[in-house]
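Issue 218. Parser rejects a valid record. Input:
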Amino acid sequence: MDRIEELLTRGVDTVYPSKEELEKVLKSGKKLRLYQGFDPTGTQLHIGHMVGLRKLSQWQKAGHHVIFLIGDGTGQAGDPSGKTKARDKFMTRDELRKNAKDYVMQAGNIIDFDAENVEILYNGDWLNKLGLIDILEIAGHFSLQQLSERDLFVERMKKGEDVNLREFLYPLLQGYDSVAMKIDLELGGTDQTFNMLAGRKLVKEMLNKDKFVMTTPLLTDSQGIKIGKSEGNVIALTDKPEELYGKIMALPDDVVAKGFEYLTDVPMDEINSMNNDFMKNKKRLAFEIVKQLNGEEQATPSQEYFESTVQKKELPNDIKEFSWSTGKSLVDLLVKSELAVSRSEAKRLMEQGGVAVDEEIITDPNAPFSGTDGSIVRVGKRKFIRIKIK
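Output the parser choked on:
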């Protein structure tokens, strides 16, 4: 597959106005200025983001000028995409900037931030400076009907759910990003199509130029459930290699083929010719992703760890030791030892049968720790601690 064909097809859902129009521009040799935005409503980038990051990297490697945009301005409005209800809390710019402080580091294994053809920008730098006349000028390019016809707003109103005006105006703000940066192409997930086409309209009417939009598919299972933060099944790019490997192995089998196409460099003809050995294929997918984010020197031991602790059910050799007392809360033990990030998560894990002491499943969130010196506490299939009684 040549580079232009790969840019236009692999990990791509739709190109606006058309793939053929964009192909003509690329074959003419013109270098484009393009971007993808990331609203920092959380502190972690995850493999759902990785789909777009890899596509951004492909454009960069093809010699185009790419912009990694952090949405500390649009984030204040609150992106309604994928949300069935209005937000009850909106974030400040300071909160968003704080969340995004490690974004460049997290994306740095995919995008070459040391290259000359890349920029890191924050849209709050121009959106927060817009005055009343500026906002009225932007709004004047849209009708109430155009904005209210958005599918998710229609669905909310049918259900009697509120549509907050801050969210309602979000597409205008994201659309203006393309004007402010004089963009030739915007890249984003299919859930961003409405917002990106708003930008296409503004670029046409305010800059008198055309702007392409390229949507990338969302990483979902066969039921359409997205792999990401809002669905609670996040796989962070910064997860420890062995944890990252294990989480990928826990993905549904029907995600594997998409995972190879969207998240790896394995050639498409090889992907299409894979057999139905899902365990073998999934292990290779996990290996390829860990290698890409952490290097092969981390991918190999991560695979070995999974094979020994999960497939062969052996205990790892380097189990962390943690001091605790018999009779004290097991929930507190899980949180203090960092086997769970919060008491609510610890309780949920227990109720779902994901916590064991010496391989005895404990489902009662009120249960005390009743093990002995040297007892093994396990969470899920891959997290262990050895107890040293105080």
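Fixed in the parser; the record now loads. The mean pLDDT is 91.
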